[in-house]
């Protein structure tokens, strides 16, 4: 991800929780996919020179991973559609960032 951040002129900072000895029970491939998508989108849509901050917090039952960027965000009218295939807030030919809108395959496979 470092090369990707360099490509966009963005840095990132990891801020782990106080006790970073946390274990997550889950599908490693899916977790990596989701975290990679969140981080790459944060980098891609941040302004050059910005910093993306990755932090974690947890209690006895949950771990929260937060990725904060300085991008413009998802317009309110598109927020309920972000998990639909082929959905992008800016799908014009002149949009700033590329992509197909296929990055969130979170439906269960049959």
Q: What is the name of the CATH superfamily of the largest domain?
A: Histidine kinase-like ATPase, C-terminal domain
CATH third-tier fold name of the largest domain: Heat Shock Protein 90
Terminal CA distance reads 31 Å
How would you write the strand order of the largest sheet? 1-2-3
CATH classification class of the largest domain: Alpha Beta
List the secondary-structure elements in sequence, H or E.
Answer: HEHEE
What's the main sheet like? 3 strands, mixed
Overall structural class, as computed from helix and strand content, comes to alpha+beta
Measured by DSSP, the beta-strand proportion falls in 15-25%
Overall number of structural domains: 2
**Rg for CA atoms:** 15 Å
Count of distinct strands:
3
CATH architecture annotation name of the largest domain: 2-Layer Sandwich
Uncertain regions spanning at least 5 consecutive residues? 91-95, 104-110
Rounded average pLDDT: 79
Count of helix runs: 2
Helix content estimate: 10-25%
Query: Which quaternary structure do these chains form?
Result: single chain
* Outline type: globular
Structure description:
There is one protein chain. The chain has 110 residues and is of the alpha+beta class. It has two domains: 2-72, Heat Shock Protein 90; 74-110, no CATH class. 22% of the residues lie in helices and 17% in strands. The protein contains two helices and three strands, in the order H-E-H-E-E. A three-stranded mixed beta sheet has the order 1-2-3, covered by helices on one side. Helix 2 links the parallel strand 1 and strand 2 (51-58). The radius of gyration is 15 Å and the shape is globular. It starts with a helix and ends in a 42-residue tail after the last strand. 6% of the residues are buried.
């Amino acid at each position: 991800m470092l090369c990707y951040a360099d490509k966009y002129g963005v840095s990132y900072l990891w801020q782990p929780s106080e006790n970073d000895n946390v274990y997550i029970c889950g599908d490693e491939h899916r977790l990596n996919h989701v975290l990679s998508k969140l981080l790459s989108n944060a980098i891609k849509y941040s302004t050059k020179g910005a910093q993306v901050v990755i932090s974690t917090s947890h209690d006895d039952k949950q771990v929260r991973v937060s990725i904060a960027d300085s991008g413009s965000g998802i317009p309110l009218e598109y927020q309920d559609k972000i998990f639909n295939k082929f959905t992008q807030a800016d799908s014009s030919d002149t949009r700033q960032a590329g992509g197909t809108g296929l990055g969130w395959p979170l439906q269960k496979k049959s």
